[in-house]
Amino acid sequence: GAVVSQHPSRVICKSGTSVKIECRSLDFQATTMFWYRQFPKQSLMLMATSNEGSKATYEQGVEKDKFLINHASLTLSTLTVTSAHPEDSSFYICSAAEVSNSPLHFGNGTRLTVT
Amino acid sequence: SQQGEEDPQALSIQEGENATMNCSYKTSINNLQWYRQNSGRGLVHLILIRSNEREKHSGRLRVTLDTSKKSSSLLITASRAADTASYFCATQPYTGGFKTIFGAGTRLFVKA
């Protein structure tokens, strides 16, 4: 089945630094990937839609200069949390679909802790 | 933004019992999906039901969809302790593409 690999699984960084999270589709091409954020015991909140070769589409209330998304190829999207602060601490999950009107395949998530 | 609500928010049952979770959504959809998430992990797709389908089965899972009421239910029969997880419904709105919006989720705890 389709596999999405997300790296790193955990990261701890100091306030003010930037963190990059990678999301790769291993055995399929993903023209579109999605980035979600999840707080403890809550649902997934869609942050942005990452489109290969074009700018990401951000959901309302998500700072595009804070959360930089790059979809450089059909198998790789990256999310960079710039100048991270403790309130950015969260679980970030990426996903991708092979074709429209089909299930998403999820990475295992990245637990970000900003100290 | 979240598409809708799920109930119950939490459900605790004995092994062997059935678990029913409900989901409501707000917009017209292409399909509705159910996912499972174990604590601190990514999501695993369970079942997808299209807007022109009313019921779907997969193993011990049964999903119904009522587009007139904008609601769906997930039934897990003969539950096992290993079914303990959070379950989310998710919809792909009828705007094309893959954009998928998640409900609030139900935390299921199955006691052995």
| Poorly predicted runs of 5 or more residues of chain B | none
Largest interface: A-B, 29 and 28 residues
- CA gyration radius of chain A, whole angstroms: 13 Å
Report the span from N to C terminus of chain B: 36 Å
Distance from N terminus to C terminus of chain A (CA atoms, Å) equals 37 Å
- Regions of chain A with pLDDT < 50 over 5+ consecutive residues? none
| Helix content estimate of chain B | under 10%
By DSSP, the count of extended strands of chain B is 11
Main sheet makeup of chain B:
6 strands, mixed
Structure description:
The complex is a heterodimer of chains A (115) and B (112). With 115 residues, chain A is an all-beta fold. Chain A contains no helices and 11 strands. In chain A, strands 2, 4, 5, 6, 9, 10 and 11 form a 7-stranded mixed beta sheet that branches. Chain A has a 4-stranded antiparallel beta sheet with strand order 1-3-8-7, with no helix packed on it. The radius of gyration of chain A is 13 Å and the shape is globular. By secondary structure, chain B is mainly beta. The interface between A and B is medium-sized, with 29 and 28 residues.
Structure described in brief:
By secondary structure, chain A is an all-beta fold.
Secondary structure elements and pairings:
The complex is a heterodimer of chains A (115) and B (112).
Chain A: E1 4-7, E2 10-13, E3 19-25, E4 32-38, E5 44-51, E6 57-58, E7 67-73, E8 76-81, E9 90-96, E10 105-106, E11 110-114
Parallel strand pairs in A: 2-11
Antiparallel strand pairs in A: 1-3, 3-8, 4-5, 4-9, 5-6, 7-8, 9-10, 9-11
Chain B: E1 6-7, E2 10-14, E3 19-24, E4 29-37, E5 43-50, E6 55-58, E7 61-66, E8 71-76, E9 85-93, E10 101-102, E11 106-111
Parallel strand pairs in B: 2-11
Antiparallel strand pairs in B: 1-3, 3-8, 4-5, 4-9, 6-7, 7-8, 9-10, 9-11
